[in-house]
Amino acid sequence: MHAILNVIHWNIDPIIFEIGSFGLRYYALCFLAAFVVSYVLMLKIFKREGKTQELLDQLSIYIFLGTLIGARLGHCLFYEFDYYSKHPLEMILPFRMVDGSFQLTGFQGLASHGGAIGILIALWLFSQKTKTDFMWITDRLIIVVPLAGAFVRLGNFFNSEIIGLPTSMPWGVVFEKVDMVARHPAQLYEAIAYIVIFIILWAMYQKNAKPKAGYLFGIFLVLLFGARFVLEFYKENQEAFEDTMKFNMGQLLSIPFMIGGLYLIFRKQKV
Q1: Which of 18, 142, 167, 237 can pair with 242 through a Cys bridge, CB separation 3.0 to 4.6 Å?
Q2: How confident is the model at residue 242, as a pLDDT?
């Protein structure tokens, strides 16, 4: 990374090293860091409230699977439905047929809104399996979700993906692997916003470890998806079909989450 003519040029190789066909990516490390840091913070919360580490370990498995499956299916269904409706196996398999032979592709395409839905389904299944109150676990888990999201967006920055619109601002970034245009570092905007949201939620929890059921969850939904809605105005659309839309897919998918958050914040607590 280097600065030339008041802009930052970004041309880092997203692959740290390769051994044969295996390559370790910065994105993978960021994704791993997201889960490790989230686990450590959730362990502090569980210990504070008298919950066992074994329960957290069970929860972690549910969240890991829910995140990956939800994010993957979300991308396939929300952004590339036309393609994956004709190639359904490629939704779950890390390769595709090219000229009659298998080509290893990995899972290219994860949608954060799909990940959010996957996490909620995983939490519901977990609460049913362990007889844990759904809203209790949700109010705690969402404290660390924004921090995990910040790591993922940092991984997107290393991958030179989810890029911003062109800008003349001095902090514009030229993603040389994409083009030679100075753009908003939208991934970093989003990461910073998520860190701020994490700090707010963590402070609110520390001040009151037993908030009204669903209150922290509601604050999380409004802040995180509100930030996502606003920041989409600084990002390039992910798919061509969004170019004809007043609000892109990310913004449209954010609206129901924000409405749900407002409901949780202002609903009357059952006595």
Answers
A1: 237
A2: 79
